[in-house]
Amino acid sequence: DAVRRGAADDARGTRGMWRVANSTADFEDVDAYGGGIPTLNAHVGRQVWVWDDAASVEDIAAQDAMRAAFTATRLTRKHSSDELLRAQYEARREARGLSAKTRPPAREAYASGKGVDGDAIDARAVEQAMRAGIEYYQGIQDDDGHWASDYGGPMFLMPGLIIAAHVMGKEQEILGGHRREEMLRYLENHTNEDGGVGLHIEGHSTMFGTVLTYVALRLLGRSAETPSCAKAREWILSRGGATEVPSWGKFWLAILGVYEWHGLNPVPPECWLLPYWLPMHPGRYWCHCRMVYLPMSYLYGIRATAKPSALTDELKLELYVQKSYADIDWNSARNACAKEDLYYPHPWIQDVVWATLMKFEPLLVNSKLRKWACEEAMKHIHYEDENTRYVDIGPVNKVFNMLCCWFENPDSSAVKKHIPRIADYLWVAEDGMKMQGYNGSQLWDCAFAVQGIVATGMAKDFGQCLKRAHDFIEKSQVRDDCPGDLSKWYRHISKGAWPFSTRDHGWPISDCSAEGLKAALTLASLDDDLVGAQISVDRLAECVNVILSYQNKSSGGWATYENTRAGKWVEVLNPAETFGDIMIDYPYVECSSASLQALCRFSERYPDVRAADIAHAKKTGRQFLKNIQRDDGSWYGSWAVCFTYGTWFGVLGLIATGSTYATCPNLRKACDFLLSKQQAEGGWGESYLSCEKKTYHELIDQQSGKPTAHVVNTAWSLLALITAGQAERDAAPLHRAARVLLSMQLPNGDWPQQTIMGQFNQNCMISYRYHNSFTFWALGEYRSKVLNA
Fold first, then answer.
1. For a tag site, which of 395, 444, 518, 554 has the least CB within 10 Å?
2. Which residue in the list 26, 144, 471, 511 is annotated as catalytic?
3. What is the pLDDT of residue 117?
């Protein structure tokens, strides 16, 4: 024991481990992680990773083992499983009174007694599996009520932060300590076998991912001869060099000073001075597009560039195939893009626009008009920063906004407020430290968890878990509109809505508001003594008001953050070769269905509130769902993988607005589609390739080469079919699917994290931890509507 204690003391002197810190108490007097930065609700839902140098040698060794296991299989199993997070909560489970007492059922308990998978499962086995699943899941719920999780996946995010830290001369403050080590681990873990790096962790190698990763590795201290750098550079040079990187990559290289600004297509800040009635005004763009190109226009307008250094001089030699940097033809480079990256080719009209703007750009540089335009852009940047408590809408504009503030005034309070909020985007797992696609998915995940737990019929057994979740949902509702004239800042109303992540982030979304409202209504149906006092009808009505305001009059559908503000033709101006459909806020099946479901649920409980408005929204929204259904009966899912996800939403939206299988041919086609994709063993498995190819792609097991089930796709499909009354026609497909879910449950009650399940802009994937809540939700519906029907 004395030897162990001595070894532990030595380890503490030089080593430590990561732990996640959440909410109020963890941030008191911790300036590095948020002391003094503004918050609306005492940081409820905030999750940051901090270094613990007082950890035991055993815990340190356990984290090391998790990392080593991931690295050993990184080329075949590319998705981490949040093992560091889960281990942390597991260690606290008993002290929190959340011990998991139920084990999943043995295989014999749900195996077919007749040797046929299509016969019914013993309801006791289903109940045991659900109870084991929820007991496990409540143990990883945070004390503030949300479920913390990894929202990583894209590989182009963290390199931008690393470049920004170098430009600002704040490497130690932003990347120092133990972050650098974990960032290196992540970047090298997600290098593909050919030496390149994908757009996302599971994607094929791209110039965008590889160039930015190479630069990030070099800035973090790797030498050009390090194997990871040498292989990446070989990949880059063999495909034409960094002049072939897409426009966003060119932009980052220009800021770093290793690419010339006249080798980019213009991003003129003068666009912000145009009258709003013009259909191409940036205020009409989708907010994520708008808020990225806003700071880009300022940085472009002032030609924001890092001070040259020995390292940037080396990068100029390492990244290009030309004999010297001076030999590069920057005009030809402007529209160059590697074939591996080219998802959205520029239409000819766009080339004409850029060529014309290039003619005028020399006249604008350093002009009074340019100065005015940059000042106007900075006003919008500060407004965004202040109204998101310096979180910002997403990681790309977060870093760009911080850079803008630094170039405007390196010593400003804005820069000082930006830096602590970087932690909100950094996540640590066994594969290393990554930059997330948002500051988390806290509200979104919590709303689904509530609906899933209640669907099992076990709410009374998990009252404390639901009460914590209810408290989080209540504290996360957006309570006010943004200040000032919303039209001046191109903002939609937000009072009463719910965000995707946290209240401090503050950007509400239609489907997040809808799922938040559904969760609040679900909890309101339970006893206050069990789950806490229900949210007042006035506050719920405020959410209804926002949801109704989101509906587009022209289509009847719902977009994401705002109404659709321009026509689809504006997409011809999409300058990002890597992403599709980024220019306007399109209406989607997910947003439309969730909004319809929420409005219907609200009107059932409060039939006299906004009755006529809700009835009209139901009628037009229902028609929108029918209009966008594909000929094969499916709906394309724009925010997850993919047709199983979209079709689940489509089915639930139709049923909420009055469809039945007998009366609605759209619903029958949807059911036929799902049944046609059920695998021989009973599950569904869909690849992320469905998203980018826009046709259904089966998930294939890498080792066997055969189709394999994914627990999440199976849960979505099972939920859709059960809700559509499949049990009344033929319950065998449902029994087979439920068996697959039971067979995939792990001994501790968890379900496995498999391949990536989220997507955005058709071509980039992102991580969600959907494998818990949707699975016991589906099993709950199976027990109540199939076995007990």
1. 554
2. 511
3. 67
User: What is the helix, strand, coil percentage profile of the chain, to 5?
Assistant: 55, 5, 40
Amino acid at 53: D
Whether residue 14 is predicted with pLDDT greater than 70 in this model: the reply is no
Q: For 666-718, how does the pLDDT look when each residue is reduced to its tens digit (9 = 90+)? A: 999 999 999 999 999 999 999 999 999 999 999 999 888 999 999 999 999 99
Placement of tokens 């988390």 in the chain? 440
Q: Count Cα neighbours of 385 within 13 Å in the Cβ-side half-sphere.
A: 27
- Report the C-alpha gap between 222 and 208 in whole angstroms: 19
Answer yes or no: are the C-beta atoms of 48 and 725 closer than 8 Å: no
Q: How many CB atoms lie within 10 A of CB 15?
A: 15
SS3 category, 206: strand
Residue pair 515/598 in contact (Cβ under 8 Å)? The answer is yes
Reference 45, options 514, 510, 446; nearest CA is 446
Cα–Cα–Cα angle for 244, 250, 256, nearest 5°?
Answer: 130
Amino acid at residue number 313: D
Tokens standing for residue 597:
């479901």
Q: CA quadruple 440, 564, 510, 673: dihedral positive or negative?
A: negative
Helix (H, G, I), strand (E, B) or coil at 296: helix
Query: Does 150 qualify as catalytic in the annotation?
Result: no
Q: Rounded to whole angstroms, how far apart are CA atoms 393 and 81?
A: 26
pLDDT of residue 112: 75
Measure the CA dihedral 363/369/372/377, to 10°.
-60
How many other C-beta atoms can be found within 10 angstroms of the C-beta atom of residue 452?
A: 26
Residue 785 burial by CB count (10 A; 0-12/13-18/19+): exposed, middle or buried? middle
| Count of CB atoms situated within 10 Å of the CB of 111 | 17
User: What's the pLDDT band for 2 if we cut at 50, 70, 90?
Assistant: very low
Q: Which residues contact 455 (CB under 8 A, 6 or more apart)?
A: 776, 777, 780, 781, 784
Give the Cα separation of 789 and 776 in Å (integer): 18
Beta carbons of 547 and 594 less than 8 angstroms apart: no
For 55, residues 6+ apart whose C-beta sits below 8 A from its C-beta are 12, 16, 17, 19
Q: Taking the mean position of all CA atoms in its chain, how far away is CA 603?
A: 31
Q: Distances from the Cα of 310 to the Cαs of 214, 258, 317, 413, 672, in angstroms?
A: 16, 11, 11, 31, 63
DSSP class of 701: -
Distance CA 709, CA 299 (A): 46
Angle, helices 157-168/207-219, rounded to nearest 10 degrees: 40
How much of the chain, in percent, has pLDDT values that exceed 70? 96
Beta-strand relationship, 205-206 and 197-198: antiparallel
Please count the CA atoms within 13 angstroms of the CA of 247 that sit on its side-chain side: 23
Cα 522 vs. chain centroid, distance in angstroms? 25
The model carries a pTM of: 0.95
Q: pLDDT tens digits, residue range 142-188?
A: 999 999 999 999 999 999 999 999 999 999 999 988 999 999 999 99
Distance CA 546, CA 267 (A): 33
C-alpha 426/C-alpha 340 separation (Å) is: 28
Q: Which residues contact 557 (CB under 8 A, 6 or more apart)?
A: 551, 587, 588, 591, 592, 621, 624, 625, 628
Given a contact cutoff of 8 angstroms between Cβ atoms, the answer to whether 643 and 686 are in contact is: yes
Rounded distance between C-alpha atoms, residue 131 and residue 102, angstroms: 7
Distance, CA of 734 to CA of 737 (rounded, Å): 5
Q: How many CB atoms lie within 10 A of CB 97?
A: 8
Residue 241, SS3 per DSSP:
coil
User: SS3 of 597, please?
Assistant: helix
H or E stretch covering 229: helix 227-237
First vs last C-alpha separation in the chain: 59
